[in-house]
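Hello,

Our lab assistant flagged a job as stuck in the queue for most of the afternoon. It eventually completed. Since we weren't sure the result was trustworthy after the delay, we are filing this so someone can double-check. Below is the sequence as submitted and the structure that was eventually returned. Let us know if re-running is recommended.
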Amino acid sequence: MPDPASTSPCIVFGIPNCDTVKKARSWLDGHGHDYRFHDFRRDGITADLLRPWLNTVGWETLVNRKGTSWRKVPEEQRPSDETGAIALMLATPSVIKRPVLMARGQILVGFSETAWSSLFA
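-- returned structure --
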């Protein structure tokens, strides 16, 4: 898998049918920002890609515990540490909180118009 950071200055990671991802992409389009979309399911996800996200926000933030995918994870498979979280995210990328934005040397998780506006100011 090619290094996503090398192909675009701004990358949005997520799943195309996610409402929050749609809102984030619409915001970027509406503000004239070029970006590349990386679909977790189609384009894949690797531990090497997850590591900088984990180093920035931690696994507790990156794993979406409010979504449908999380509720489907059996209790005994729910992570209690970073190693378990990586294994779960690799096996079930839809448990990753969306979108993940890599832009201008920063990583933002989730969509916040305030945070994104600040980043692109």
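-- support follow-up --
The delay was a queue issue, not a problem with the job. The result is valid. The chain is about 45% helix and 15% strand. Residues 92 and 117 are 30 Å apart (CA to CA).
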